[in-house]
Amino acid sequence: MYANCRTYFLLFCLSFISIIHYGQSPATDSVAILSGKILKNIEQADHDSTRLKLLNELIDLNMESRPSLVTDWVAQGVVIAQKRNYPDKELALQLKELRALNIQGQFTTTLAKAKALEPLLNKVGVPLQKAAFLLSIGNANQRTGNYDLAAASFTGAIEVCEKNKIRDIEVRAAMNLGNLYQFLNRYEDMLQHLQRTLLKAEKYNLAEDIPMIKFNISNAEAHLNNFGKAIGYLLEVLPYYQQTGNQPALGLIFSNLSWCYFKSQKKELALEYAYKSHAIRTSLKDEAGLAHLEFNLGKIFLDNAQYDSCFKYASSSLQKSMALKLTTDIRDNYETLALLNERQGNFAEANKYLRKYYEWKDSIYIKERDKTLEKELVKYKASATDKVNKDLETANQKTKIYQVIILILAGILGYTVFKSFFSRQKSKKQQLEKHGETVVSETTLPAGNNNVILPAFKPGEKEQLLKEIDGLKVENEKIVKELHTQKSTDITALRDMISSNKLHSDAYWNEFLLLFSKVYPSFFEKMKEEFPALNQNELRISALIKLNHSITDMAKALNITVDSARKARYRLYKKIGLSNDQELIDTIIRI
């Protein structure tokens, strides 16, 4: 079964950007002829199972050379799979579509489709498919600048692979994780990580993965300005991809060779390989690859003082980059256009592009800085929450100690009072019996002390004891009052935060959580203990209900419609297993 899954996975799982498909890719004309025959067979097929099989063959055949055609065929296959209730086949088809979208550079579409696919994946997906899914969204997030999400996806894929001993995919996910370092300008780390990954691939005898890892090592060397080493790695792996006819891989290798030769001042070779890469990527309709390649061409022509060609390619690259939201390519093209206009004497235009370049450069820097600061803030808030909880625990313990002391003193007082009382009464009774009298003498506490009957004390003894009890009561009341005042202040602050309508923001939610935990230290712990299936959004709604907020307040706080808030509460009490909204409120208030 594992062997079948492995073969099945390799047909559709790997995303193009960082994970290169290794199957034989026929020439475009041969693909078109063979595709025509398969389409004809699909029209003549008598059974849906036959049509599904042929559609899968058609998709696999065209994946590398004509990925733009894949979406329509996937849609046809999904209709058949849903009609026949084949959820596993439906999942396989849609995973192929994710790969095709990544090949075309449609990364935002990949992420949208992947989100819709998650429920089906969780229901019927096997480990290999889950790893493929994580790789696809990891690559899409990487190319759209969401590096933290990309790293989480690649790490998740590695965990799935390690658990199920899927060695080849583990290595490819590790390689993708290493490639992320280049987007953080950590090229030494990138090189070291990829070199470790190469050793792992050699240990596992993954012959097909070794050329791919060496290709990515060449990227690291190029970023470290070791262009001779980078060219050496590229020329080493080039024959492998030429032999397999892998067009996407060749497009990448030619592009990187072009850039390395350009930086090595070998401009003729740089243009030669750039044009080779451009032809391949145009045939593949790889918009993201073309965007970056055309940026390189713009730089080459600028350096050669071929200004018309420079403007043509830099403008085209900028247009593609903006459509695909490729932030670094947008920024770098602004710089190229600024330098171009400066050399042509168009200083007003140069200044305009230079301003845009610095705006984008600063925005990217600020975005990365904010991510770092946010991580530090989360750590600080976690530490602060721990401190607040410890302080509350200390205060509670102190209050309990005072209560125990009061009880002990009250017990001692009671014991002393009654012992003294009965002793004196016994003595008086004996005296009265001698004289034949029946008189009882009573001494009572002053008003405000419940008129407890006490015997006579030594001078000052009773007053001192009562004074100590009253002092302990006053101190205990003071502590309780301070805690109550602090709780009231914190609840007011919570309500102010809710009225700001920013709770949908994770950063603002963390601040809200810090305050909420002071007021109700064990609320979330008890909620998770009683209802472990609740997700983050449902816990947010529970917190607002705990604070006695209406549907309207909840909608404003979470930046959603009132109808959405009402539906969210409905789903929440159904998930908990309650019958109505009032039961939900009563349950949460109780916790």
Automatic annotation (TrEMBL):
UniProt entry keywords in alphabetical sequence: Cytoplasm, Membrane, Repeat, TPR repeat, Transmembrane, Transmembrane helix
Superkingdom field: Bacteria
SUPFAM superfamilies: C-terminal effector domain of the bipartite response regulators (SSF46894), TPR-like (SSF48452)
Organism name: Terrimonas rubra
Transmembrane segments: 401-422
Xref: InterPro entries: Bac_ResReg_Asp_Phosphatase, Sig_transdc_resp-reg_C-effctor, TPR-like_helical_dom_sf, TPR_rpt, WH-like_DNA-bd_sf
Cellular location(s): Cytoplasm
Family designation: Belongs to the Rap family.
Name of the protein: Tetratricopeptide repeat-containing protein
